[in-house]
User: What shape does this take?
Amino acid sequence: MDIELARTFLEIMRAGSFISAAKRLHVTQTTITARIRNLEDQLNSRLFTRGRSGAQLTAEGERFSEYATQMVRLWESAQAELPLPPGHSDVLLVGADTALWDPLLLRWTQWLRSTLPDMALKIETHNAKTLIDEVEHGRIDVAITYHPNYFPGVVVEQIMEEKLILIRNKRIDGPYIHINWGQSFKRQHEAALPGWARSGLSMDFGPMALKYIVENGGSSYLRSRAAASLIEQGVLERVNGAPEFTYPVFSMHRSNPSLQPLDQIFSGLRNIATEIKE
Assistant: This one.
């Protein structure tokens, strides 16, 4: 069976209609309809019922969704892992939140290269939504993120905890910049500092906010590690008495990966996270 038929089936299931799936896949609705008709003929089953509210899975469609997910996941894993680079017996596909590349991802990569030299590494950085999607579809083996998602077949483990502290430019006054650090921070922030989130300047990328404050003044909640060197240099200062917030880091991976040295891989990650905290 053409793997594209399974992908189309899953996209309709997620989007809720043939029209929405066609837009997401950048094809015509006629193409989507033809693919599903072909798939239903091959399976001798009706997979969707269509109505004004969209496309709903039939009982047979519900059953096929499990197989379609596995098929697409296996195919995408094979595409990502093959062919193996010369001189390597396995490959580890790692994705991480962009903000975690230094020092956590960098040190872990160095450790993996020295400890498991026969394992090829493919390292990517993404936002949390993309990382979750990559793990779900088997395109990466391990994700390191601040914002995991919990779903069947995936193991989520907290590996370290960062702190968000209120800092300000020591020399230049400026406004409070609200950074979107996720839903958990949003709830804690609103409870501790009502109304502060309604700032005239908001961002969703900490490094940009940090650079803006250094050059233009102002204050914001930033990761303590990211601001540490600038505090030491006297460019920034921590606002005394301001509440601080926790910002945990998690790993995500499938519960049945094919990688053999999985315990060793995660042991190294935990040890590096502990060293960074210290």
In short: The chain has three domains: 3-81, 90-160+248-277, 162-246. Residues 176 and 184 are 20 Å apart (CA to CA). The first helix runs from residue 3 to 15.
